Amino acid sequence: MLRRRGKWGSQLGFILAAAGSAVGLGNIWRFPYMTGENGGAPFVFIYILCVIIIGLPILLAELAIGRHTEKNPVGAFKNLAPRSGWFLVGLLGVATGIGILSYYAVIAGWTVGYFFKTVTGAFSTQLTAEDSKIIFETFVSNPGLVMLCLFVFIVMTAYVVRGGVSKGIERWSKILMPTLFIMLVLLTIRSVTLPGAVDGLRFYLQPDFSEITLTTFAKALGQAMFSMSLGMGAMITYGSYIGKKESLPSSAAWVCFSDLSVALISGLMIFPALFAMNISPEEGPGLVFVVLPTIFARIPGGLFFGTGFFLLLSVAALTSTISLLEVVVAFLVDQYRWSRTKAVVSMSALAFFVGIPSALSLGASTWLSNIPFVNRGFLDLFNIILGNYSLIIGSFLIALFVSYKWGIRAVVAEVRRENNIFYFRRTWAFLIRYITPIAILAIFVYIMITGNYF
Ligand code: PFF
User: Fold this and answer.
1) What fold characterizes domain 11-450?
2) HSE-up of 172 (CA within 13 Å, CB side)?
3) Which of 102-106, 306-310, 425-429 has the lowest mean pLDDT?
């Protein structure tokens, strides 16, 4: 039986869907707290470098692999390098996808919970940072509630992915992505006009280059891969639905630009407000959930801005969880001829069950919250192993694959299909062949030697 694979309805639809995958909790929740913990402006500077020099070339490579083969990550590698072990890179991606989905949906679930908390006025106008911390801790340590939030988020994701490529993912992204952008800009305007915002802008935008170390590079690189959804075949999968006429470099540039701009605007939204409220930028992962409600409680129109923010974060997270689930669904539909419904239902159930230990690892279960020997919570551990290392390793292998196995020429031919122009062809080839693998290897070796995993 010949099955027709889905296709994006238009280039804009694809760009919005791929940007939707890239833009998520990584930009709005993770990027600001990483920046806060790593000294502000110097981190931002290195992050931008990593996105453009390492992220963008890999993004283009993943899209080319996807469009050429019209396959999921495993099928794509099997197709381009038959009877070799390269398909394992795809398999690593699929497994990483389910793993990331499982804990990502936990945090995404909190955003939904916080949306309802804000709407129902849980945060009074007198809220202090301590009160907010207690509210957060009580919330995340309630096992029933966090599991319910996780469940709700997985169901929402499954519902969209079940709809398929054009009717599901593309249609929703077209509505959700622009809404998100408008809300972000509104909140940023609110933040930068608060009295005392200037110090925050300085912390965020004025780099002191003497503070840059290799650790800054390591953290910024992991953040760049996570934020751009690279290294696990999400962009191979999305690339497989692109029409042959579309220009890959321009699509890649648009996706990269949206991802970078949302991250940078998120910082612009958070740091001025933080400094205006006299709160330390080094709050860690709780930054968004602990600190922002105290800010919303104290600004005029706080209920509106607070509700808008958590809605925005849920929307951003949803377009990302969709892509995480789509990777494994495409794999099962392509490789094993499963029906889309069967793949969606079983894999969402799997992600839900795998997500339970993460959901319970912020206080609900003492053991899961502080696993012996590693002294970290389960979610934290998953986030480091899968969200950082798995993606960096995947990106490294993809760079090697296109450079030395499939070949630069083949990629160039794919990009140039239907007379498309490949500007910066040589720069791209140089970056993906030498700079990307060497930089990743150097950073990886450094991390291994110093044991500086975080
Ligand atoms: N890029 C997403 C974010 O920044 O939130 C997370 C993500 C989605 C990572 C899809 C990897 C992926 F394949």
Assistant:
1) Sodium/glucose cotransporter (1.20.1730)
2) 25
3) 306-310
pLDDT at 1: 36
Q: Give the integer Cα–Cα distance in Å for 299 and 303.
A: 9
Domain boundaries, the chain: 11-450
Rounded distance between C-alpha atoms, residue 216 and residue 235, angstroms: 26
The finding on whether 149 has its CB within 6 A of some atom of ligand 1 is no
Q: Let me know how long the chain is.
A: 454
Structure token digits, residue 192: 């930068």
Measured at the CA of 96, the angle between CA 404 and CA 22, to 5 degrees, comes to 80
What is the Cα–Cα distance from 259 to 19, expressed in whole angstroms? Answer: 6
Nearest CA to ligand 1 atom 10: 229
**Phi-psi region at 243: left, alpha or beta (left = phi > 0; alpha = psi -120 to 50):** beta
Ligand 1 centroid to residue 229 C-alpha, Å: 4
Task: Please tell me the least confidently modeled range out of 158-162, 207-211, 246-250, 319-323.
Answer: 207-211
Read off φ and ψ for residue 376, nearest 5 degrees: -140, 160
Q: Is the CB–ligand 1 distance for residue 61 below 6 Å? A: no
> What is the amino acid identity at position 129?
A
Higher-confidence position of 378 and 166: 378
Q: Please tell me the distance from the alpha carbon of residue 289 to that of residue 297, in angstroms, as a whole number.
A: 13
Residue 376, pLDDT > 80, answer yes
Cα 21 to ligand 1 centre (Å): 6
CA distances from 292 to 128, 187, 303 (A): 11, 12, 12
By CB neighbour count within 10 A (0-12 exposed, 13-18 middle, 19+ buried), where does 402 fall? Answer: buried
Q: Please answer whether residues 324 and 234 qualify as being in contact, where contact means their C-beta atoms are separated by less than 8 angstroms.
A: yes
